[in-house]
Amino acid sequence: MAFIHDDFLLSGESAQRLYHDYAAVMPIVDYHCHLPAAEIAGDQRWDNLGEVWLAADHYKWRAMRSNGVDESLVTGDASWRDKFDAFAGTMDYCLRNPLYHWTALELKRYFGIDTLLSANTAGEIFEQTAETIRGDGFSARQLMQTSNVVLTCTTDDPIDTLEHHAAIAADASFDVQALPTFRPDKAMAVDNPALFRPWIEALEELCPGRIETFDALLAALDARHEFFHSLGCRLSDHGMVTVEFDAGGSPATLNSVVRKARDGESESMSHTDLVQFRSALMVELGRMNHKRNWTQQYHFGCLRNNNSRRFAVAGADAGFDSIADPVNTAALGKLLDAQDLTDELPRTILYNLNPAENYAMATMIGNFQQGPDAGKLQLGSGWWFCDQLDGMKLQLDALSQLGLVRRFVGMLTDSRSFLSYPRHEYFRRLLCEILGSDMDAGRLPRDFDLVGATVRDISYNNAARYFQFDLPTL
User: Fold this and answer.
1) Is the sign of the CA dihedral 229, 233, 235, 239 positive or negative?
2) pTM for the complete prediction?
3) Which of 81, 108, 140, 395 is most buried as measured by Cβ atoms within 10 A of its Cβ?
């Protein structure tokens, strides 16, 4: 039997029936990813599997480095074939790493290849996939369509022009929605002049007028928020290592932070000034999200760019990131409460990178649930270091025990690769294995209408409803 077969990860008859009859047929709503919209608009094509797989995948880069691969074969200027061979040589050392499953799934789904990748099979697979990749049926848009993707949300800075999203929306020949997501993290970077100053100057070009006050910054962000909304954006996203909250910032303090950041005087800000500024800005961004009926996503707990020597060579998002210290849940509660006090807390998803915090986050969302939005606050899917079998199961278990798992909006790719959609299949198979095993053990009723509807909702329907997308439910 091939390694990837019809019942991969499905150990019992109930799990198999749930997957094949209820999960597999559902479309994909990939509501959080990092695909470049330009590549969707331009219908990106590639020359070989090394280019497709290794151009921007820090999961693979980390594994290769752990296997002693030189950086020239990871992010350096070696040929795609040499990089591919180095990755193939790493695969036999990836047993129990999710890369082993993902790699086998992608070879099976997109190329019909059952041969497992290794140093011995690298040449055969490289040549066999090259014919498909260079053929007529293999491009960014075609991969999305053949993967049954109906909508994807990219990740975009407020200063992005969104010209590629507009081009995609105007193209009647392509039926997959590609919507922007508003990610204003650089507005928070007032303590980093090298990042903040060019960003705010670009914002001033789009929203004419010098930004020297907190209100002026809010007005510019709100204008961009409205522009994003006009192009179909319905989500914001915010990355935070942890949460600090102090609502005591006076107008004078907030204005001072903006001015100092604008003028390159960040070193004169106190830590209290920074926390008060960021707290006020997060509350105001939440109000914008509420005003336009968006969903906000909070990603917590990533300590980025730990290896400064490698960062200087490879740059950001190159695989030198780790799980940070625990999130300050007390401060998180204050942030959500500050938005809720005025009844302006939007739909919110909390993603924690440390699985030890699943229960804390699952109990936090329960504090702010309210009608008529069923499941208004969500415990986000297993993310980044946790989007593997154990991490996803722990997330599902915590949500099941402390919330309503049937209201869960399901999986996402969080990826820069057009070949990553089997991660939705991976998640759905695990979901069906968990529920099917419970049915077989008598922990859930043997009611396929009930449990199957739960599978359909988590796989697709909940996302279609929750985010207010223009999508049917099935």
Assistant:
1) negative
2) 0.97
3) 395
